[in-house]
Amino acid sequence: MGVVSSQTVESSAAPGAESAQISAPANAAQSGIGPPETTRSQRLASFASRALISSILALPAWVQRALARTIARAAYALGIRRRVTLDNLRHAFPELGERERRRIARGAYLNMAYAVMEGLTSPRLSDEGVAKAVVTDNWAPVQAAIDAGKGILVASGHFGGWELLGEVLARRGVRLHAVIRSLRGALNAQIILSRRKSGMRLISPRGAVLSSVRALRRGDMVAMLIDQVLPADRGVFVPFFGRPACTTPALSMAAVSSGAPVFVLMSIREKDHLRLFVEGPIPVPNTGDRKADIFELTALSGPVALASPALEGPAGQILIRTPSPRSKVGVGMAGIS
Length: 337
Description:
By secondary structure, the chain is α/β, with parallel strands linked by helices. It has one domain (42-335). It has helices spanning 28-31, 40-57, 61-77, 82-92, 98-121, 127-133, 140-148, 162-171, 186-198, 208-217, 250-258, 290-306; strands at 134-135, 152-156, 176-179, 201-203, 221-225, 236-240, 243-247, 262-270, 273-282, 316-319, 332-335.
């Protein structure tokens, strides 16, 4: 898997393996990823959105980044999720002053805008751009797990350049599957299309554990963003900054079922590239009590991610997502450039 420029990595594609395509039912609507049925007005709005996105894609890269900065500033100024963001940053960083927390929040909005823009434009990266996009100093444990052929589970979050990271890994030969939630709108449809073009397989949350285990048994990599809030009756509450946060147990269930190693991959921005930090493999509990093992691994994955060097200093901070009415708090992470 030729991944990162600090360290030469071999391709993980097995001889005779099928090239990475979308892993989804024939009926896209059943997959939870395909577009839902729409009305005429929605189709017209979607057409206008697609035209706007096409215009953005035609812009030079420096103009796209300038546009992302403008959108981020506007979103923060308009107060979109700003109250929730600042309130939860107070819980996460009580030692910081309000001014510093607002700086962190603005940086998180900026990083979110960059990540979305990368989700739209990354398929246009040249081979040279892909080669330079991500660097790391600690890929060896991941490569060793790939070579063992048991598959790999990756826990990550909305931190740094998660869209670009997935694009680069897939285009460099990693047989990558990602568990995603379907979202409406032309923007999300374009991002999903970009993921597919990269060779990434998409797994719907419905049946995600079974699909993940099947991919792992083929020796593939399965990635999940574990910082997404779930309803209380579908998730697991684990401690996060002193408060219970409801997150998905799917990764831990797949790990306990398959025995595949678990790694945490986090990236931050460094000038014109991402630096990837690798933590793991995280020991998978095997006490014989499946429920307890799943909870322990789920509770452990978050703190391991937070202990990553990616979160040290001003280069990385936390953006808290909107809490669900049926859960106590949901947490999202966004790297600050």
